[in-house]
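Cont'd.
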Amino acid sequence: MDQSGPASGGAQTRPFLKLFTAPAVIVAAVFAISMLAILQFSVRAHIPGSLDVGGFTLANFAAMARPLYAWVFIDTVWLCLLTAILSLIFGYPLAYALVRSKSLFVKSFILIVTVTPLFLGEVVRTYSWTVVLGNNGFINSVLRQTGIIEQPIQLLFTVTGVTIALVHVSLPVVVVMLAAAIAHIDPAYEKAAESLGAGPVRVFLTVTLPLSGPGIVAGMTTAFAWTFSAFATPQLVGGGKVNMVSNLVYTLGFANFNFPFAAALCVAGLALTYVAIAAMRLTLRPIEKVGVH
Amino acid sequence: MAQPVSQRLLGLTGKFLVVAVLGFIILPAFVVTIAAFNDKAILAFPPKEFSLRWFQNAINYRDFRLGFENGVIVMLATSIIALVVGSAFAYVIDRYRFRGRNVIEGLLLAPLVVPHFTVGLGMLIFAAQIGMTRTYTVVIVCQVILVLPFVLRSVYISLRNLDHRLELAAASLGAKPWRVLLTVTLPLLTPGLVSGWLFAAILSFNEFTAALFVTAQRTQTLPVAMYNYVREYADPTMAALSVIFIVVTATLLALANAFLGLGKVLNVEQAR
């Protein structure tokens, strides 16, 4: 959104500029203030048993170095990365089919199936996964009745279960972002490669895949950020056995009423998210550049 | 002309992959539907008897009713405010360059990256500082912040696709800016505006994490009520409600796709 439209020529006649910007400024300001409120709380001391905060301190950030908390951060980043990579691998074929399928019905079907979970919200989706993964759930019932297993496989409350549910949460947005990138590839490039004798695999690997670079980067970074944001999924599917930063923030805030520490965790989490996204962009830079023509 | 075997094999593998991933996306919805119609309180597959009792339970459960009412209030307010704020701002960033444009845009798009629990906690602390916790206002403002990027994006894409010559033609015939806006620009933007509003409405009705932080007992929305239910009870009432959610959401999106062309709004249509 960095280009100005054709109407921007006459600087003296810019109808609606102030009127249309003012409401956005108010919302942006409220958001900025709430972020500053977190920042301010993160450097205040917690007074046990009180909702008021004490004086300036950096103890909240120092406390995060304790293994108990440090490990939650490490686990969270690992889960986010894993989810982003798996969503990319599984999302690509779907995005490709969504854009390139010749049948309108297939396109619409893929679009609705993909986009519906995006709008469903975390609670419905996570609850559904507990029904699929539970010891008396769908997978274990089917496996037991077909005689493949006798004892249920523990899927709920495991990292595997949480990862499956997290991939399900971030897959749709990755598909939409990949599809947007694939849709903007000029088919002439692929035709050119084909006419020069490249087979379909070669065309895909040397033309389509590199040209969808911006979508890969956008999809991976968004999947990372959305997974970091997930709360109900690790809470219900992880059942306290798999904890992410989000669960820690909620527990500290609403079980311990230690809002300064919860705020500090948010600040650290946000910083970590931006660092991780920057690192991913840097790593993926070669492919992101190819896509810009 | 017949394709070489290797190419056909490749096509088949691709199709299989697509079907497998679609199956993975649908699986939980499919399973939860079976569970919802199962007569027994304990999940069993396949169910022996079917019944609608869990649907009755879900509809009659007091907290769900309250959550639904709160959700509708919050959804209506959120989606209308977000639509007005978002489309107005999409209009100015589409047309003008001005000081602070990137800062405002950056702040408004930030909730795509900032975790919902962080936005929720920030709004809770801010609301506490100005003495507004437990009000609908804080819930609505929080939801507006969260859904605004989606409105902004869908209206912005529509604006990009708009033929400016139509506006210029109206202006050259003497129409004042307001008249051009109301009689030319807005009607042409209808698909983008409707889908932007719909995205905002569905997302705010279904949003959970931030709502958990900023809602109180009196203002809790449906997803929060559902979360509290799941933590206390394990019967399929939640499955029944999930089925209703899935069916309503999918139907709304299918209608939006049929009438507005979701592919265009989401920018995933092949350029011709």
